[in-house]
Structure formats: structure tokens, C-alpha cells
Amino acid sequence: MSKTHYIEDVYEVVRSIPKGRVSTYGAIADFLSLGSARMVGWALRNSSVMDGPIPAHRVVNREGYLSGRLHFTDPKYMQRALEREGVKVKADTVVDFKKLFWHPAENML
Asked: How far from 86 is each of 6, 48, 80, 97, 99, CA to CA, in Å?
């Protein structure tokens, strides 16, 4: 899989996450057989230069923690964007994470 191809695949999955739901770097990596959640994070770090909106704010770590928040221009953007979609965040962690978790394998097949 080429570098560009996997990045486009990550973006396709992230665009599929419904508003008000979250997924994880690991779930996306597993779904795409990337072998590393870090590859998903790397792809999303560069998402701001891509055409079309990539809702990277909907991707959190496996505990629901907003680990990517520091990669946004404004570190509070991720929390504000999730809260606009009805997702509650407390101490940089998604409240009711398990309830709001969206797994691509269950939703994109």
C-alpha cells in the first residue's frame, strides 16, 4: 500500500464517523490493516492540508482521551468541535466513551 493510498483510506474512514460519535486511532488502524495506530495519527496530523473537511476531532485514543488535541492550531478546538456535536468532554476525555464509540468494522462493511 502506498503512503498516499493509506492516507486517503484513513480520511475515508474518518469522514464516515457520524457526528456525535467517536472512533479510535487503533480501531481505524485495525480496520485498514495498518498495523499501527500511530500511522492513523500521522495521517490525521496532516489532514488540515487536504481538500474537503476531515473531522479529525472525532478520533481519540483507546481510553477516549483527546490525545490529538495538541496537533490542532488551538488545543481546545477538538473539545469544542465535539461538544458542538453533543459529545460531552471532561478532563480532556469523552464522557460515555463506550456508548459513543463507533467502530468502522461494524459500520463500513
From this structure: 30, 23, 10, 12, 13
Contact yes or no for 94/60 (Cβ under 8 A) = yes
pTM of the predicted model, to two decimals? 0.90
Phi/psi of residue 46, each to 5°?
-100, 5
> Which of left, alpha, beta for 25 (phi over 0: left; psi -120 to 50: alpha)?
alpha
| Phi, then psi, of 29 in degrees rounded to 5 | -60, -45
Q: 31-36: which pairs have CB atoms within 8 A and are 24 or more residues apart?
A: 31/103, 31/104, 31/105, 31/108, 32/6, 34/6, 34/10
pLDDT digits (tens, 9 = 90+) for 5-29: 889 999 999 999 999 999 999 999 9
| Residue that the C-alpha cell 479529525 belongs to | 56
